[in-house]
């Protein structure tokens, strides 16, 4: 449960987000649509900057990653192969009184006195309901409050004057069977598929059912062979994609944190299976210890690649302003791992609404998952399409004959066992699984394998929210008369700040100042996002930009016009949002100076 201080902080953040045009409720004029959010002028810029930073660091600054932009609706068989049709579900429970739906794992445990009823009768109507009902009331509350809820339950079953039957009561501790909002019994948990369905084509029939993608990753697997062919990449290499994803979340909550429509930024980084690495290099490099393992090396096995990507992603978050101490690296426990995952590290951010541990420290909520997914996904698409997803590796083919017969046997057997394990889990009958695993082991000795994958998968909206929470700050700043007043400031890193610089003429009614300010605005505009503001006292204008998170302010004053001497002509004051310091800078140096601060 969030404490009062953190919920007050979240309220301030939500209200600032709306007031300053970061985030609005979708369809607000119609009362809103739960789990859907729109980004206003500043929010749209913020998201764009986040995606631009991610794309740049994941693709443009690397030789070994290429991009993809696939459709949102894909062939429905993709979701059968990925497992989403059968297993992408959450357990949900419904309130028996209000029908409100909750995720079973999010119901807060309750204690109190539970009242049980076996049914109810209405003599006058000659009607009866044999539906059992129960309601939990806090200790010390009279039984009448339980009876009131129970009568409501039986009225909903058509009894006008229900006489309750078989009442009994019992003390209950820490139960998750009751609705925390009204004490009513919840239904038994049942699975609920999170994919949003639609129909492709004019006929709404079963064969036309399609889904809005619940993740962007599957398109990368489905297009793996095409991208490999055209990009001249060799394993290890990655394919990156960002775009919309949709999940019919049972309980959208915590502002944009759990939404029904959101954006993902995903990388599938394909690597050799460890057996191939060992065959080529005689060993598989393992992590030497915690921390970044350095530049990628050809003899790296999956564990060191996994660690590399966790550390790369942490560096990315730091590079856009999330301090290391606001992030948590959470290694999923073996019983939490998806069945195909060998290891998953969740990168958490300590949101104000995160739970607290015994020491009162925020535990964090997931920003990104970095999963070592073995060769599961490509293998699934291979089985479902009947088309090979294996790659040919010349180095492996050349290395294999040079291995001793014992080594060949050892590596073949290890690979065969791994493939057999996958095929058996995937449901292939015993004999067929044995045969396919044997074929895969033989293919390995000829240089063929299905690549394994490391997947760093992040959410744009969660990151935008983390950046806003992290940037939010209340401090003191002098007003126009030098008197300290409290200010709200978003201390965004200049790289992701929606607006980079605001340009102000000192006075609006001095045409020379206004003209010069507009010249400066036009000079800066091609290089960075600029906001021009001439309305109100200069202190008020600074405050407005502080709230928008604009890191720099440029003021054109009488010195700029040369009225205080020629040495200050064509200089401006450059204000730093956080330090609130001002320095005098030549106009012709502004582009270089500001560009260096936002890169
Ligand atoms: N391909 C793997 C995958 O989709 P995930 O952990 O389900 O993994 C990855 O999602 C990221 O997508 C999460 O870490 C989160 O940032 C974002 N995400 C997932 N569900 C979300 C939701 N309902 N609302 C906002 N972001 C979400």
Name its key features.
599 residues; alpha+beta; 17 helices; flat; binds glycyl-adenosine-5'-phosphate
Folded structure, characterized:
- It is flat, with a radius of gyration of 30 Å.
- Helix 2 crosses helix 14 (460-471) and helix 12 (405-425) packs antiparallel against helix 13 (430-445).
- The strands form nine sheets. Strands 3-15-16-22-19-18-17 form a seven-stranded mixed beta sheet, sandwiched between helices. It has a five-stranded mixed beta sheet with strand order 26-25-27-28-29, with helices on both faces.
- It is built from 17 helices and 29 strands.
- The longest helix is centred in the C-terminal third of the chain and has 21 residues, at 405-425.
- The two termini are 39 Å apart.
- With 599 residues, it is α+β, with helices and mostly antiparallel strands.
- Bound molecules: glycyl-adenosine-5'-phosphate.
- Glycyl-adenosine-5'-phosphate is lined by residues 215, 217, 247, 249, 258-259, 262, 264, 266, 366-369, 457-459, 461-462.
Sheet bearing the most strands, described?
Answer: 7 strands, mixed
Report low-confidence residues grouped into runs of 5 or more.
none
| Portion in strands | 25-35%
The Cα radius of gyration reads: 30 Å
- Rounded mean pLDDT is 95
Instruction: Give the bound compounds.
Output: glycyl-adenosine-5'-phosphate
Distance between the termini: 39 Å
**What's the overall geometry?**
flat
What is the share of helical residues? 25-40%
**What is the overall number of helices?**
17
Could you give the count of β-strands?
29
Structural class based on helices, strands and sheet pairing: alpha+beta
């Amino acid at each position: 449960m969030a404490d009062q201080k953190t919920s007050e902080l979240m309220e301030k953040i939500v209200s600032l987000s709306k007031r300053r045009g970061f985030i609005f409720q979708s369809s607000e004029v119609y009362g809103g649509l739960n789990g859907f959010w729109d980004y206003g002028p500043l929010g749209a810029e913020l998201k764009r900057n986040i995606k631009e930073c991610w794309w740049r660091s994941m693709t443009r600054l690397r030789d070994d990653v290429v991009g993809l932009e696939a459709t949102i609706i894909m062939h429905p068989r993709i979701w059968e192969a990925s497992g989403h049709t059968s297993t992408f579900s959450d357990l949900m429970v419904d309130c028996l009184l209000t029908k409100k739906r909750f995720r079973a794992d999010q119901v807060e445990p309750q204690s109190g006195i539970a009242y049980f009823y076996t049914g109810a009768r209405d003599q006058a109507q000659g009607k009866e309901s044999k539906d059992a009902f129960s309601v939990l009331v806090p200790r010390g509350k009279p039984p009448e409050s339980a009876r009131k809820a129970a009568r409501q339950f039986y009225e909903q079953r058509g009894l006008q004057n229900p006489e309750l039957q078989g009442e009994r009561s019992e003390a209950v501790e820490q139960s998750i069977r009751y609705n925390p909002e009204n004490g009513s019994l919840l239904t038994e948990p049942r699975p609920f598929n999170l994919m949003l369905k639609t129909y492709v084509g004019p006929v709404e029939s079963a064969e036309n059912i399609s889904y809005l993608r619940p993740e962007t990753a599957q398109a990368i697997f489905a297009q793996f062979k095409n991208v490999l062919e055209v990009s001249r990449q060799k394993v290890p290499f990655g394919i990156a994609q960002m775009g919309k994803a949709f999940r019919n979340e049972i309980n959208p909550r915590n502002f944009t944190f759990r939404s029904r429509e959101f954006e993902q930024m995903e990388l599938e980084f394909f690597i050799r299976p460890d057996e191939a690495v060992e065959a080529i290099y005689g060993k598989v490099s393992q992590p030497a210890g915690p921390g970044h393992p350095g530049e990628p090396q050809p003899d790296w096995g999956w564990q060191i690649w996994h660690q590399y990507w966790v550390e790369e992603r942490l560096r990315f978050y730091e590079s856009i302003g999330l301090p290391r101490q606001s992030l948590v690296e959470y290694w999923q426990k073996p019983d939490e791992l998806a069945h195909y995952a060998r290891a998953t590290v969740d990168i958490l951010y300590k949101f104000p609404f995160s739970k607290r541990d015994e020491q009162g420290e925020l535990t964090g909520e997931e920003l990104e998952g970095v999963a070592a997914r073995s060769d599961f996904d490509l293998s699934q698409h291979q089985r479902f399409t009947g088309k090979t997803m294996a790659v040919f590796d010349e180095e492996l083919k050349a290395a294999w004959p040079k291995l001793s017969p014992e080594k060949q046997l050892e590596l073949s057997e290890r690979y065969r066992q791994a493939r057999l394990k996958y095929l058996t889990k995937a449901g292939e009958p015993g004999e067929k699984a044995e045969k396919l695993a044997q074929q895969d082991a033989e293919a390995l000795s000829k240089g063929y394998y299905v690549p394994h994958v490391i997947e760093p998968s992040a959410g744009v909206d969660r990151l935008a929210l983390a950046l806003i929470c992290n940037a939010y700050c209340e401090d003191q700043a002098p007003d126009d008369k030098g008197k300290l007043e409290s200010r709200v400031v978003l201390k965004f890193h200049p790289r992701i700040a929606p607006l980079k610089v605001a340009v102000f003429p000192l006075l609006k009614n001095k045409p020379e100042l206004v003209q010069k300010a507009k010249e400066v605005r036009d000079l800066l505009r091609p290089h960075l996002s600029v906001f021009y503001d001439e309305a109100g006292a200069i202190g008020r204008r600074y405050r407005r930009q502080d709230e928008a998170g604009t890191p720099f302010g440029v003021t054109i004053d009488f010195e700029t016009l040369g009225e205080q001497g020629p040495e200050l002509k064509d200089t401006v004051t450059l204000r730093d949002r956080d330090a609130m310091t001002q320095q005098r800078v030549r106009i012709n140096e502004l582009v270089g100076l500001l560009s260096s601060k936002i890169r």
